[in-house]
């Protein structure tokens, strides 16, 4: 397992702005690969502006290999590393809710157990909160990379400012879930994540926005998202299709979206399920991803 590299850390103030302290919140279950969890934990604990609190939710009993990694990090970061264990797997939404309650800081940075954050991710997100204290939820672009070769495959962009975020949220998640950071108090106010088994991150983002949360995305890649050979199959699976339609039906019944925003995305998801795999690959490359390797900046968004 990798250990501290001695990389220089930034102070708790940047450009005259005092950076708020933050908690990192991650959940893991027994299907995670140990090497992926290790890399993900390293990427968050070695941030240039490090966390003051780290909450790891173990969603059900972990394998021995995963437990070894968890205990190793707990021993190395005794002052900030806290483990919340759940006896049985309850799903991402319920697991994250337990983690939110356990977080000690007002600002919470979410992280998946198999992705990799850039070293300055948290510094940039906390600086945005410091510069714009009215914000409740922030995120960034992500870079998808091949799990086997480590090569960048594509970029996933999201809208940047509140007006565009609200409009985009009618059709899709306006935040890359791997990059989200939010206020604990606002998340608790809206009831946290739902018990949905899939797409709970999208439903959470919409509920935050519907209850007055102000959001913004940073036009930079701050997280690398791991893509494997099974990813296209997951994207077109019946399980994900049902989950996607269920969330959109919920938003439709609550009045957040109308029929024009409900039907087309659901129809398209059904087409991805029915049509051959090559169509799913083509569609994501053509319409939902930027396959240019050069990372986007504020000048070329």
TrEMBL record:
Pfam families: Glycos_transf_2 (PF00535)
Entry EC number(s): 2.4.-.-
Domain of life: Bacteria
Keywords: Glycosyltransferase, Transferase
Glycosyltransferase 2-like domain span: 23-162
GO-annotated molecular function: glycosyltransferase activity
InterPro entries: Glyco_trans_2-like, Glycosyltransf_2, Nucleotide-diphossugar_trans
Family membership: Belongs to the glycosyltransferase 2 family.
Identification of the protein by name: Glycosyltransferase, group 2 family protein
Source organism (scientific name): Ruminococcus albus 8
High-level lineage: Bacteria, Bacillati, Bacillota, Clostridia, Eubacteriales
